[in-house]
Amino acid sequence: MDIEGTSFPQANSVDRIIQILILMDTNVSLSENQISARMGIVLRQSRYYLYAMRFLDILDERNNLSDYGRYLRQLKDRIRELSIELKSKILSKPVFSEVYLHFAQNHTYLGRDAIAGLIVANSNLCYSTSFRRATTVSKWIEWCMLIR
Fold first, then answer.
1. CA angle in degrees (0–180, nearest 5) for 27-28-33
2. From CA 6, how far away is CA 115, in angstroms rounded?
3. Residue 41 contacts residue 35 (beta carbons within 8 Å)
4. Own/partner pairs for 91-98, CB < 8 Å, 24+ apart?
5. Residue 119 — very low, low, confident or very high, per pLDDT cuts 50/70/90?
6. Quick one: what percent of the chain has pLDDT higher than 70?
7. Are the C-beta atoms of residues 14 and 55 closer than 8 Å to each other?
């Protein structure tokens, strides 16, 4: 089973998630093509970021802002508050909380192999896919460490 019904994310930049959120109108979703054009990224990457935003409950299944997404968007002029809220959401997710806790306790990052094992244990993904997704976990945790 996918974690909370959404495919495990493969979008390394939390800052890009925030940029896309700020671009979104509260009542109109952005298409993959619009995100690609506005952000200067390829279509595949815009799809990855939309999936990541659904994983974080920012978007609903139709790529409209959820209640939580609208709340975050209201914080767009207060980036520090928005970042703290988003950090809290990221760390509420099983694999991310385990990797963050490991760092807090041991002052070392888990390697991709260990993170991939956690993803396999918490999703329906195979090891090779989990190994690729482990980079996203590492990048998001590095971002979380910067937010205070």
1. 160
2. 18
3. yes
4. 91/144, 93/3, 93/4, 93/55, 93/56, 94/3, 94/118, 94/122, 95/3, 95/8, 95/119, 95/122, 95/137, 96/137, 96/140, 96/141, 96/144
5. very high
6. 95
7. no
For the record, the structure tokens of 37 come out as 């054009």
Delimit the domains of the chain by residue range. Answer: 7-146
AA letter at 98? E
Q: Report the C-alpha gap between 53 and 16 in whole angstroms.
A: 10
Q: Residue written as tokens 């139709």?
A: 62
DSSP codes, 56-106: TTSB-TTS-B-HHHHHHHHTTT-HHHHHHHHHHHHHTSHHHHHHHHHHHHH
Tokens of 132: 């690729």
Tens digits of per-residue pLDDT, 127-136?
999 999 999 9
Length of the chain as a residue count: 148
**The tokens 């595949």 sit on which residue?**
44
Amino acid residing at 59: L
